[in-house]
From TrEMBL:
CDD domains: AcnA_Mitochondrial. Belongs to the aconitase/IPM isomerase family. Residues 558-686 form the Aconitase A/isopropylmalate dehydratase small subunit swivel domain. Pathway: Carbohydrate metabolism; tricarboxylic acid cycle; isocitrate from oxaloacetate: step 2/2. InterPro entries: Acnase/IPM_dHydase_lsu_aba_1/3 (IPR015931), Acoase/IPM_deHydtase_lsu_aba (IPR001030), Aconitase/3IPM_dehydase_swvl (IPR015928), Aconitase/IPM_isomerase (IPR050926), Aconitase_4Fe-4S_BS (IPR018136), Aconitase_4Fe-4S_dom (IPR036008), Aconitase_dom2 (IPR015932), Aconitase_mito-like (IPR006248). The keyword Transmembrane does not apply. GO terms for molecular function: aconitate hydratase activity. This is Aconitate hydratase A. Its EC number is 4.2.1.3. Residues 35-477 form the Aconitase/3-isopropylmalate dehydratase large subunit alpha/beta/alpha domain. The lineage of its organism: Bacteria, Pseudomonadati, Bacteroidota, Flavobacteriia, Flavobacteriales.
Length: 754
């Protein structure tokens, strides 16, 4: 039986009328993405056609999902909103605060011991405000959502960039910052710039060593990490229909790595099979009644160039397995080309670890295909040359995989079975020896491979591949191993080859679980007390940010000019810092410590214009704040790429940074800056980035005339007394300018509710 079936049936009861209205108002057939967007307008039926990439639109999402690391700040904000219950179905999932070290049981107990205060806080807040709570060990948020909450044609938002995983079940599911989620929890519309549309036509059929993961690894190579920014990617064609539902989820999940707003697939038989196998036949029956509205119109898929802003075509029958990396998820290499590329770039060919799991690839199908390779190694007398680790996606997947003997196969190869949690994917990995910072290579089935992401070692070269390729490479111990052509020598000195992987789309005996890990909230939580210890190092009640004084910001200094890639990992690291995600002041001690200073090419070393000395970024900024000196941050292209973590916006805001000026932003981070009352601006002339000098002073000349579609002028006063005046662009609309004026979007919500 599905969660929230009445809500889902209500969505389906309106979809025909709303899609018809949208078709009439736009005067054309519709893509699936357009059908879902137009059927979730805050104002109901469409009365105008929206311009892609231009119009800001208010939407009414069906549900919200939050993971524990981001839920802390989201719920701390919601507690200030003046509401007694969330307005839409919401869940919290405890998956980020569990470190992978020894193995599932011990690691989970350690997490319960060390993060009990946070888990208790999240459970009590959830209970008080009508939020479903998934306990530590229940599973990774996006796998749990796919198994329990995702439904074709729905719209959801989540406080994690990989919320997009639910596109595998035909949703428009979008990662957001916590402040966006708070809007929807409080019963307000959610604003999004109407996305552009990228169509990916899949022909042929996957076979052999090629997996759904290779589709998105190929797409990442085509689009790069920013090629999908501001767009929804919609997959269609016979190749899409021939793919499993969880395989579709894998592809949608990693759409975050090309900057896409989200990705999705039309409802088909594989989704129906998955719904029925996960005890949601009631959704499948309801979806079948409106299935023509849960996929793109036939005319769209027949002539995609007429309806999408960009079309990519991939023949799955010709697609090869890929390894993407290191240090960026869009550096795509077909398996047979790795030796040449690795040799040219001096990438270590010896592989130290193979890791399977994360929200991207931890389904039953993923484990079964990887287990088929592991079983071959056992049968053919092979040992794994690399160490091996497994993170099942949920307790339901883990329990079923254990029942069916899959985990036993991995354990026979001395694999460590970690907790059903994010683990190494989010930097929660106590990897032995990582502190030595030795140059090495690992391979994993995760989504991101930024420097220091998995183990904190900047010299770990991480490569992304499918679970079956991870297993094969881990067994061989070599990055350039090509299972399609290469032989291995077994314990008897015999040359053997690995056969193609096999697996199960769904468990032949069905899913099973004893305790899925879910706690339903009380119907009336008014009596529940949420206590935050004022002396806590982990949790801190929020103090509202100050409103803008209406004056131009003048006399500002440069905190840091970031050089090259500056992701949310660089701005607010994860790993051990996850413990402070509920304490804004403490976590602000990691603010921008990973960003490379353009002037000395060092991290966490910037010049203070108060003392003239170099010091850590947070310490320097705290000194500026204490002295009442406003500051700015300058960055390069795609600034804020990666996670949805709003801490990357809240920390600079808390420490007194007033503006972030870059060549271009990643979508979620730009929105997060706006929500927190920051100025997120872009150079009208990108070359003006080069004008910024280390000891400049900055004066905004016309901020008092801040308005939509109107550039801002910035005067740069150099140390020698010379000046440059440059123009800055922005994408603020009237509502977002009000957030800035009030000090934050939350301040405005509180004002409206009072």
């Amino acid at each position: 039986m599905a969660f929230d079936i009445d809500m889902i049936k209500k969505v389906y009861s309106q979809v025909a009328e709303r899609v018809t209205a949208a078709r009439e108002i736009t005067g054309k057939p519709l893509t699936l993405a357009e059908k879902i967007l137009y059927s979730h307008l805050w104002d109901g039926k469409a009365d105008k056609a929206f311009s892609r990439g231009k119009d800001y639109v208010d939407f009414a999402p069906d549900r919200i999902a939050c993971q524990d690391a981001t839920a802390q700040m989201a719920l701390l904000q919601f507690m200030q909103a003046g509401k007694v219950k969330v307005a839409v179905p919401t869940t919290v999932h405890c998956d980020h605060l569990i470190q992978a070290k020894v193995g599932a049981d011990k690691d989970l107990q350690t997490a319960l011991n060390t993060s009990n205060e946070v888990f208790n806080f999240l459970e009590s807040v959830s209970n008080k405000y009508g939020i479903g709570f998934w306990k530590p060990g229940a599973g990774i948020i996006h796998q749990v959502v796919l198994e329990n909450y995702a439904f074709p044609g729905g719209m959801m938002i989540g406080t994690d960039s990989h919320t997009v995983n639910a596109g595998g079940l035909g949703m428009v599911a979008i990662g957001v910052g916590g402040a966006d989620a708070v809007d929807v929890m409080a019963g307000m519309p959610w604003e999004l710039k109407f996305p552009k549309l990228i169509g990916v036509k899949l022909t042929g059929k996957l076979s052999g060593w090629t997996a759904p993961k290779d589709v998105i690894l190929k797409v990442a190579g085509i689009l790069t990490v920013k090629g999908g920014t501001g767009a929804i990617i919609e997959y269609f064609g016979p190749g899409a229909e021939a793919m499993s539902c969880t395989g579709k989820g894998t592809i949608c999940n990693m759409g975050a790595e090309v900057g896409a707003t989200t990705s999705t697939f039309g409802y088909d038989e594989s989704m129906e099979r998955y719904l029925r196998s996960t005890d949601r036949s009631d959704i499948a029956d309801a979806a079948n009644e409106v299935k023509e509205h849960l996929t793109g119109d036939p005319e769209v898929y027949a002539n995609p160039e007429q309806y999408f802003d960009q079309v990519i075509e991939i023949n799955l029958s010709e697609l090869l397995p890929h390894l993407n990396g290191p240090f960026t998820p869009d550096l795509a290499t077909p398996v047979g080309e790795m030796n040449k590329k690795a040799t040219e770039n001096d990438w270590p060919l010896k592989v130290e670890w193979g890791l399977i799991g994360s929200c991207t690839n931890s389904s039953y199908e993923d484990l079964s295909r990887a287990a088929s390779i592991a079983q071959q190694a056992i049968d053919k007398g092979l040992k794994t040359k690399a160490e091996f680790g497994i993170n099942p996606g949920s307790e339901q997947v883990r329990y079923t995989a254990e029942r069916d003997g899959l985990l036993d196969i991995f354990e026979k190869l001395d694999a460590k079975i970690f907790t059903n949690a994010c683990g190494p994917c989010i930097g929660q990995w106590a990897r032995e020896g990582a502190d030595k910072a030795e140059k090495n290579s690992i391979i994993h089935s995760f989504n991101r491979n930024f420097a220091k992401r998995a183990d904190g070692n900047p010299n770990t070269h991480a490569f992304v591949a499918s679970p079956e390729m991870v297993a094969a490479v881990a067994i061989s111990g070599r990055l350039d191993f090509n299972p399609l052509t290469d032989k291995l020598v077994n314990e008897n000195g015999e040359e053997v080859m690995l056969d193609e992987p096999t697996g199960w789309e769904l468990p032949p005996r069905g899913f099973d679980v004893e305790d899925a890990g879910y706690l339903a909230p009380e119907e009336d939580g008014s009596h529940v007390n949420v206590v935050v210890n004022p002396d806590s190092e982990r949790l801190e009640l929020l103090t509202p940010f100050a409103a803008w004084d209406g004056k131009n910001i003048t006399g500002a200094k440069l905190l840091i000019k970031a050089f090259g890639k500056c992701t949310t990992d660089h701005i607010s690291m994860a790993g051990p810092w996850l413990r402070y995600r509920g304490h804004l002041d403490n976590i602000s001690n990691n603010c921008l410590i990973g960003a490379v200073n353009a002037y000395n090419k060092k991290t966490n070393s910037v010049k203070s214009q108060i003392t003239g000395d170099y010091d850590a970024v947070p310490a320097t900024q705290r000194a500026y704040k204490a002295a009442g000196v406003p500051t700015i941050v300058v960055g390069d292209h795609n600034y804020g790429e990666g996670s949805s973590r709003e801490h990357a916006a809240m920390e600079p805001r808390h420490l007194g940074v007033r503006a972030v000026i870059v060549k271009s932003f990643a979508r979620i981070h730009e929105t997060n800056l706006k929500k927190q009352g920051m100025l997120g601006l872009t150079f009208a002339n990108e070359n003006d980035y080069d004008l910024i000098q280390e000891d400049d002073t900055f004066n905004f000349l016309d901020l008092d005339q801040f308005a939509p579609d109107r550039q801002l002028a910035l005067e740069i006063v150099h140390a020698d007394g010379t000046k440059d005046t440059i123009q800055l662009n922005h994408t603020y609309n009237d509502s977002q300018i009000e957030w800035f004026k009030e000090g934050s979007a939350l301040n405005l919500i509180k004002k409206q509710n009072s």
